[in-house]
Amino acid sequence: TRAASIRSAMARHAGPRLPLIVKNLIPTLGSVFDSQRITTTAFFAELLNSNVVNDLILLETMMDNMTGRQKDACMLVRMLALRGLGNIASGSPEKVRKHGAKLLASMVNGMDDKDDPHNLVALEAMSSLSKLLDHVEERDVQSMLLHIAIRIRPFFDSEQPDLRQSSIVLFGNLTKFSECNCEVFFEQILNGLVTLLLHLQDPKPEVVKACKFALRMCGPNMGCEGLCDMFLNHLREDRSLHYGEFMNNVCKHLMQSYPEMLNRLILTNLFYFKSNWVDIRAAAPMFIGFLVLHVDEDHCQQVDLDQLISGE
């Protein structure tokens, strides 16, 4: 984009003059005109993608100004501010650790944006958060881990494929921080497991790729070596998947390790009987069939046959 081209050119050629340019632009962030605030925020966001702001001791100033735009009346300004904060992961990754708590709080606030009808701010927050997670302190993530996992879960089924992809990738990245809250986060994995497995049949390849990544990341946290091995071996990006055979084996491991989960897994699948995506609608009853096939007799009484037959 134009802002990216200008940033790149100025980072290369206008280094010594950048502090004065930034100083003169900062007042426009408070302009009454949306267009001026948008243009300046976009430029600052792109500038944060370059290490030159760190070299010129501009990072803290620009970061504070981006944080200050989070309550801007213009949704596009709020979105661009989050992009800028996320770009620090590329421009000055070593600074992310120092400012981790502040950056994470900004992303969580972005996901909770109340005036975001098309979830554009939330999308930017999720994408930026995934970039930042590689550089933050684990302790800074721990306090927000559960809130983020619960907040992004509804996006797994969004009609917008980019929201499905970003939320699922972020969920996979969050599993890196689940060790200290293993039992709590395991519950979140179980809440999302059916959805992730069904969206392996998503019509969008980028969403399928995200689900493969998230399931590979979830595997080691599930306490089932067979399931973990299946996710790692069969859900590689470069490997095609025989979905029916894969799900048959997944359900076998699930019922061997978590037979008490049968009814919960069935109820979640029933929700997808009315999915807008035909392949996911078809996958849900197959999923239930394999679960029932592999559960032992002692746990069969969990199944509510009337509910199952009615499909509701």
From TrEMBL:
One of its GO terms (cellular component) is cytoplasm. Residues 64-310 form the Maestro/Maestro-like HEAT-repeats domain. Pfam families: HEAT_MROH2B_C (PF23227). InterPro entries: ARM-like, ARM-type_fold, HEAT_Maestro, Maestro_heat-like_prot. Transmembrane segments: none annotated. This is MROH1 protein. The lineage of its organism: Eukaryota, Metazoa, Chordata, Craniata, Vertebrata.
